[in-house]
Amino acid sequence: MAHGEHAPTQAPSPSAHQHGSDLLLCCEELVIGYQGKALLPPINLQVRRGTFLAVIGRNGSGKSTWFKTLLGLQQPVSGRVFRSGPDVKSAYVPQSSGIDGMLPVRSRELVHWGRLSGWNFLRPFSTHKDRTAVEAALESAGAGPIANRPYRELSEGQKQRALLARVLATEADLVLLDEPTAAMDAVAERETMQRLAELARTQRLAVVVVSHDLRVAAEFANQLLFVDREAPAVVLGDANTVFCHPAFRHQYGDDYCPHHPPSGHPLGPAAG
Amino acid sequence: MAHGEHAPTQAPSPSAHQHGSDLLLCCEELVIGYQGKALLPPINLQVRRGTFLAVIGRNGSGKSTWFKTLLGLQQPVSGRVFRSGPDVKSAYVPQSSGIDGMLPVRSRELVHWGRLSGWNFLRPFSTHKDRTAVEAALESAGAGPIANRPYRELSEGQKQRALLARVLATEADLVLLDEPTAAMDAVAERETMQRLAELARTQRLAVVVVSHDLRVAAEFANQLLFVDREAPAVVLGDANTVFCHPAFRHQYGDDYCPHHPPSGHPLGPAAG
Amino acid sequence: ALKVVTSVSDLAALAKAVGGEHVQVTSLAPSTQDPHFVDARPHLALELNRADLLIAIGLELEVGWLPTLQNGARNNRILSGSPGYLEVFQFIRTLEVPTTRVDRSQGDIHAGGNPHFLYDPRAGLAVARGIADRMIALDGKNADAYRANLAKFTAELEKAIPVWQQRLAGLKGAPLIAYHRTTAYLADWLGFDAITYLEPKPGIPPNPAHVAQVLGLARQKKARMILQEEYYPSTTSKLVAGKVPAPLVIIPGGADFRAGQTYLQRIEELVTRLENGLKGKGT
Amino acid sequence: MDPQLVETTSWAQFWDAFELFRDPMLCALIAGSVLGFLSVYVVLRRMVFVSAAVTQSAGLGVALAFYAEIHLGLHVAPTLGAVILSLLATLLLMMDPARLRISRESMLGLAYALTGGAAILVGDRISQEAHDIQGILFGTAVLVEQPQLIAVAVVGVLTLLIHLWWFRGLTFASFDRTGAMVQGLPVRSLDAVLMISIGLMVGVSARALGALPVFAFSTLSAIAALVLDLRLPGTFLLATIAGAISGLGGYLFAYFYNFPVGASQTVLSGMIVLLALVVRGLKQLLLGRASR
Amino acid sequence: MDPQLVETTSWAQFWDAFELFRDPMLCALIAGSVLGFLSVYVVLRRMVFVSAAVTQSAGLGVALAFYAEIHLGLHVAPTLGAVILSLLATLLLMMDPARLRISRESMLGLAYALTGGAAILVGDRISQEAHDIQGILFGTAVLVEQPQLIAVAVVGVLTLLIHLWWFRGLTFASFDRTGAMVQGLPVRSLDAVLMISIGLMVGVSARALGALPVFAFSTLSAIAALVLDLRLPGTFLLATIAGAISGLGGYLFAYFYNFPVGASQTVLSGMIVLLALVVRGLKQLLLGRASR
Ligand SMILES: Nc1ncnc2c1ncn2[C@@H]1O[C@H](COP(=O)(O)OP(=O)(O)OP(=O)(O)O)[C@@H](O)[C@H]1O
Ligand SMILES: Nc1ncnc2c1ncn2[C@@H]1O[C@H](COP(=O)(O)OP(=O)(O)OP(=O)(O)O)[C@@H](O)[C@H]1O
Ligand SMILES: [Mg+2]
Ligand SMILES: [Mg+2]
Ligand SMILES: [Zn+2]
């Protein structure tokens, strides 16, 4: 497991040999930032089918910026993002959704939008398959009871469920979720992460999630990406690798790392 | 500790005898909801100085609605909210802030607004005391480094810090925070909760926080309020009382209650 | 009865004078509307649809709005070129016809000449004659009545004109300022001197340098009054009038045909206002 | 004389002359419904004053065409100038205003003021034709000429067809731009289709009916529908119906009460909004009562 | 005659006739700066077309006053009618549009269309006086009467004073309504002060200068400032300056190049926005370069 400060980061996937077909996304010396100013060291990373990657890092470290750059919503400062093919479908839950408070859209209609991709809106009606997928997604995201409610009247957690349902309905290959469970209650959060892990495993999709709940992230994700502006560092690896990395320990303390004796103040921010 | 399903809930404060001076807010048979439809059973509750009350409950159970009703931003369906006096200053961090993405306001300017209350804007300039309080609040919320940044360019977590700083700057008696740490990283979340607990203790304010992180809530709050639409129930008490209440266990499982043997699946949603 | 529709209300008054009880007259534009822009009503479309005769000024005065009504009314009798369509400018001697190849950035709005001729009762008379001829051609059986009405109208007007001229004799050679270039025929009739216009060019609102020039000129030549139609904004005129100083005379844009005003009464009102202006009283 | 006229305009007379009113009423009906449909996008995408901006820009286009002819000796058809400038205004709408830190309405305000002012300045140098600009751009809704009716009908029907066909894509791309981009929808093309159809429809309708009723159809119809808080398809349907009623009903009102047509259509649109507000009020009252 | 006129307008002549221009220039300066200051609220509170709606409502007020006089025999001063109706429009702005599920711009659009249409309908029944409506409401900016100058100066100075004095409260209540309500600020009163000062200032300025420049001052000034991405006080300052420059500079431009005043002021406002966009572009280019 390569990991490093300043150094480009390599992403060895569980099936490193059968590359090509499994590879969905690839960052090459990708530098993200605003107005030409880099936020983080260059990121090198490959995202393959079956991956459940959790992105962690302090506030303002550039996680959301990275997502936007991956999706082409924002220009990179330098470096490149490759998609393995034009038919790789992606889906995204933004950290704060831009859906207007005036829009009289029901959650189910919102989830139906998830079934659109490319030019397939040229088919003016949704198919039976679409409707089945939408109902399944609503069910699976726990959004069944709010399916007929106007989106704008939902509580924040309910809104996140509706957006999650939409992402599930897309049947995308690559799913990027930016703190999808921030407003969800503890039960829903675990259910969601479990569901995503299951999807990555059974449907062979790649799921990338930003989360601030380190334990939940470590429990479900099969890879962690830690980004830090202070060090600066981009660290990729399994939970232990990341949690014991000096840059991580400097930010979050030693308590997450099994190789270190627990310090005096449990879970508290350590001095490094 | 009175707690009950359907039954009105009593709020015994740590200093129940010296009532009057300490009492800040009082809900009397308060029923919250929209368009005349009740969300929860009537709430009876008193909030006193020195309280750190954490509100917990599943998504869509009415926590934010309760806050808005307490602050007079929304009409109750029935019942009343009393403030102990007109000079009780309150401050509020909404779950999703309504600050326009076009507004060219710096975080420090935003925090300065926290110093306004009642008609004191008639003094056109901020005093030295104001400026000291603002700097202290920025520091204490960890928003020092972002003080000069435009609010709209902040990451979600940074925005929450700026809003927290504003609440700290108000020197209000009653502080209501609706998931103030949802977008914050784990370290910042703990720091924030610790800070709030300290404030409640040392400055004798009342702090009411909505949180989905049950462990952190239980650790810092001296009272928990659990609301549930399914039962329906409004349960007030210390962590053990609430965590072992049947309505709570129905929603969150038995694992939070020390009186119950841990079930097979750790932290998972139990069947009730 | 002969159904007659006219574009502006002065024409309606004239048509009524000539046609008397044998015609039913409607005007598309009320006197208060700027005849360059007119907002018609559906029932007027109905009138147009049934009209035997549509009378217009011509000279591009109604070019912005009449063609749509004329062509949309599904009435072949009033299409251009039919006997039921009459443009009355042909009966008068047009003034301000651009002589050189028109430099259109400078010239009047109306490339064919100034169409605001009905302020001059002599033109009104000529037009009435033309209208009578056309009515006779369309409705021969009432020809005598039309001739009689025209004769009566001519007599009245010919009696009134010298009196008006008498009352306004003081205007001869008097320096005047007008708002829009609508005064050519009036000046021709009464002999006053329109030294300059408040609009730098027709249809263009006044600008500061121009107003300063106008004011200078007005003071220098001792302008007697400022003249403008009631459908133009009076703000600037009022201020200039105050600064010259000279009375501001607001003249009606046409006969108030809806209220039953005749062409004679309309010119009488115009003359009265001008007379008051001469006495130093504004409108 | 007028009072008589008013009295005698009856249904009988109306039907007698129906052939006369058929075209303008058909035109008002089509323009009202299609603009009503589009108004949902106009209102929800926060570009309420788009029709004002587009017609102002068209005015500048006409003025510039005259200017080119007079001062530069280039022959440009005024309608071409109008089309070019209003398309430019439409393209402006396709930009993302958030990048410039301004709202879409601000952008429209900028286009409105700048083209309005510039048209007057250019008009100053082409006084001869300045008066014609209004005539070229705006009809009076009383009668329409065949070509205008055809223009409204063709643009209207095409717009409605493509909008119904692409409904799912257009709504998604309009109301959740990020989501649609991520899912690979051709958001720019969809935006272009939407904006150009709004621009065209506003242009041809204003030419036939005048600026004010077009403004009313393209905003008030959706406002009435939104106030009633329906689903998205219901909102579109209701807005279309509201537009159709305003167009047709306004014409009839103008006919029977002898009022200007455009203003009648506008006021009727407004009345429909007020009616919707009353219905909403009643609904809430009933809901509130029922649950106590 | 005209060509000569144009050539001879020089500075010397300008100073000669300065007495004539002093009042209108002072008026444009005051109106430009105060409306420029207010424009920040106008743009950030999403009510770009407020001046259009207010002046349209005032027009309806004048028409209704005439109507009352002619048909009901009540004597209502037309200006009183204008003030009442525009205050009503202002009060409409104080409502929370989100309750009705519509945006503030939609509300303005409703007010604009409804009062515009109604003014035409009412005007139709008072046709003798209808032409006065424009004259009563709108000046031409070339010259102003003493009372209008005084009105603009008094309202402008008072507005600016109260706005500077209450700056902290007004900005807080405007830009974070919930926060201000919770902290016990008199949000409704502050809103009333803001909206009424906007309504009044728009009214008196339009009366002196005309509708188009007032629209430009009250929106484009803030747009120029916002594009430059300054702090809040800097934005207010820059908007004020932009408004002042447009007002005064537009007048001078109109004088020296013989253009209509209002349109010149409007176009100059727009040019300032374009200039700000260029500055923004350069700044970003430099920033982008510098950091590579
Ligand atoms: N539009 C912008 N212009 C300039 N800087 C920006 C802009 N948006 C965000 N930033 C800055 O970029 C940095 C990274 O922001 P980003 O939103 O990616 O953080 P994040 O890791 O997602 O944080 P969080 O955990 O709080 O969501 C922050 O310091 C933020 O202030
Ligand atoms: N404007 C509204 N009209 C009708 N119902 C609403 C409205 N806003 C919220 N609700 C409903 O009221 C219920 C409570 O909402 P509230 O926002 O108070 O939940 P919450 O407890 O804060 O949830 P979360 O944990 O997700 O923030 C939800 O079911 C929600 O859908
Ligand atoms: Mg983020
Ligand atoms: Mg909530
Ligand atoms: Zn003319």
From TrEMBL, chains A, B:
Q: Per the database record, which ranges form the ABC transporter domain? A: 25-254
Give the range the annotation lists for the signal sequence.
none
Q: Does the keyword Nucleotide-binding apply?
A: yes
User: What Gene Ontology terms describe what this protein does at the molecular function level?
Assistant: ATP binding
What Pfam families is this protein classified in? ABC_tran
Sorted alphabetically, which Gene3D superfamilies does this protein's record hold?
Answer: P-loop containing nucleotide triphosphate hydrolases (3.40.50.300)
Q: What are the alphabetically sorted keywords of the record?
A: ATP-binding, Nucleotide-binding, Transport
TM region(s), chain numbering: none
SMART domains listed in its UniProt record: AAA
Presence of the UniProt keyword Disulfide bond in the record: no
* Stated family: Belongs to the ABC transporter superfamily.
Q: What is this protein called?
A: Metal ABC transporter ATP-binding protein
Q: Which organism is it from?
A: Archangium minus
Specify the taxonomic lineage: Bacteria, Pseudomonadati, Myxococcota, Myxococcia, Myxococcales
UniProtKB/TrEMBL annotation, chains D, E:
Localization (cell): Cell membrane; Membrane
Name the residues that span the membrane. 20-41, 48-68, 74-95, 107-127, 147-167, 187-204, 210-228, 235-257, 263-282
In its keyword annotation, does this UniProt entry include Transcription? no
Pfam family membership, one: ABC-3
Indicate what this protein is called per its UniProt record.
Metal ABC transporter permease
Q: Which family does it belong to?
A: Belongs to the ABC-3 integral membrane protein family.
Bilayer topology: Multi-pass membrane protein
